[in-house]
Amino acid sequence: MREEPGGVDRLTPVLRPVRAGNGFEEALEQILQVVRLGLVPEGGRLPAERDLAERLGISRVTLREVLKVLQDQGLLESRRGRYGGTFVLPRAADPGGQDALRRRVAEVDVEDVLRFREVLEVGAAGLCAAHGLGGERAARLREALDRTHDAPLAEYRRLDTMLHLTLAELCGSPTLAAQYAAVRATLNDLLDCIPLLVRNLEHSQRQHAALVEAVLDGDVDGAREMMREHCGGTAALLRGFLT
Q: What is the pTM of this model?
């Protein structure tokens, strides 16, 4: 599976070790790219789990969670036995789903949205940490975080949005907050086009908690870096599913 005749490994340009902070999301993005680019043809078999995990730099447990998501989306199929493995399903097995996604985001410059979102959110996190949040303002941020804990899937995206909007509002720049509200609306349109993944939500919650603590501790660099990492995880999922 690694090489074609002549020793060419067609997966090398896509599969690479992921960064520790967003391993699940970036691994999902890369395998989606393999499927969508046709680097493994329909009906073809992906490399063995051990090989994939080594190339991505993740555990086999994380890899299996990634593959399970893609199986649930009708993109891959797992087969047992001597000739088993993980196979790419024909596009017809995904009835209209990808066409619907592409129609939904056809007029959106995904990369521009992701870049602008990161600039605004990293800036807001840094400003909040630098200025310090105390009393009622700190309580508002903690309350917004607490509401996302154990939120039902149907409510999670709304409560996640409220947490991020709260951080933007508390940064002290009404202009930034207004710009963020606009870009978040577009971001949510994109997020509505992809599945809610429990593993990703759990990961996001850990990042949210670390972010809030950094902000409230006045750790400017830590807050900015955690927000950058958090935005990167979302970006990886959106690129994987939508581009």
A: 0.80
Burial (0-12, 13-18, 19+ Cβ within 10 Å), 123: middle
Nearest CA among 59, 37, 40, 39 for reference residue 49: 59
Task: Provide Rg for the chain, Cα atoms.
Answer: 20
Amino acid identity, position 4: E
Q: List 79's β-bridge partners, or say none.
A: 85
Q: What is the pLDDT of residues 172-197, one digit of tens each?
A: 999 999 899 889 988 988 998 888 89
Give CB contacts under 8 A, 24+ apart, made by 179-188: 179/116, 179/120, 180/117, 180/120, 180/121, 180/124, 183/113, 183/116, 183/117, 183/120, 184/117, 186/108, 186/113, 187/113, 187/117, 187/234, 188/157, 188/161
Are 32 and 43 in contact, with CB atoms under 8 Å apart? no
> Under DSSP, is residue 69 helix (H, G, I), strand (E, B) or coil?
helix
Contact yes or no for 70/28 (Cβ under 8 A): yes
